[in-house]
Amino acid sequence: MSKTLLCISVLGCFALLAAGCNGPDVVGPAVEISKEDLIARLNNNSAAVKQVVSWNKIQLKDSEHPEEINAEATLAFQKPSTICLVVSKLQQYILIVKSDGKTFGAYDYENQKGWQGRVEYLNNAQSESLFNFRPDLLSEAMAVAEIDAATTAMSTTENGEYLLKITDKDGMKRDLYVSGDKHVPVRQVAYGKDGELLMQVTYDEIRDVTLADGTEVFVPSGVTITGREEGSYLKISNADPEMFTVNNEKAFKGAMGESGSKVKFPEGAELNELQLDGTWRPVQNG
Question: Label partner for 120 (CA 20 to 30 A): which of 90, 169, 190, 285?
Fold first, then answer.
């Protein structure tokens, strides 16, 4: 699969992030907060946001696409890690990526090639496998996973942001930068098991949303994802405020389509399945 495909595969979760402003954060006077209170704020927000559906503009650039590609995409996410990304241009499908958090499927309409496998194998995937479109990274990009205060250290950066250095239950490490004034995520850096950079996510647009039960949450409506490949990036930004919903079951099911979290591969398409060792094995479609 092309590196383009791998870079998104994203991807956590529009649902979990930080609070209140539209557009990039402007650094204001720092508001002091304890580590415990900051983590509680982020975790409570994360717990309240169950689903996000958004119609987006995307921009993509990598070694296989040195000239920036501009397209449209529908993104649907449901906690903990169900995701669907449908990319199109001029009303023609380009790519679809789906995952229920355990298995994934992806299909490149232009090249009539499909990929499927277990999400847990993606960390071993060889370069043919979609870094720009990995469903696990997309999920992580869209959501700030629950933070354990006991395995997290907090410090303050020179520009007044709070830095949370987090070690997750699986031993993976990530750095979460939070604005000092609004206490909302600014960016997140995730590292692989080898300690090397896996991806960096910048939260470009964060919206205040009032849920049906009156709960106020903060949700990112725009992110920029960069990976290990220098100069590569994926930018996702909501194209229409009317097509951005939170915790709307009907909208989520509509975006996922009749096949749910499974990709329905067309007859005759080339299909490859990811193996435990990171290689791809051709399999029979259907």
Answer: 285
Domains of the chain: 3-146+182-283 (2.50.20.10)
Q: Is there a contact between 126 and 67 (Cβ–Cβ < 8 Å)?
A: no
Ordered mean pLDDT values, 10 residues apiece, the chain (286 residues): 40 38 47 95 93 92 78 92 91 91 91 90 67 72 84 95 91 92 92 84 90 92 83 88 94 94 90 92 83
Are 238 and 212 in contact by the 8 Å Cβ rule? The answer is no
Q: What is the pTM of this model?
A: 0.81
Please compute, for residue 191, the number of CA atoms within 13 A of its CA located in the half-sphere on the CB side: 14
CA distance 96 to 85: 6
End-to-end CA distance of the chain: 19
Closest C-alpha among 34, 42, 10 to residue 146: 42
Rounded CA separation 281/271 (Å): 8
* Residue whose structure tokens are 């259907």: 286
- CA 53, CA 203: separation in Å to the nearest integer? 17
| The dihedral formed by the CA atoms of 37, 41, 47 and 52, expressed in degrees to the nearest 10 | -160
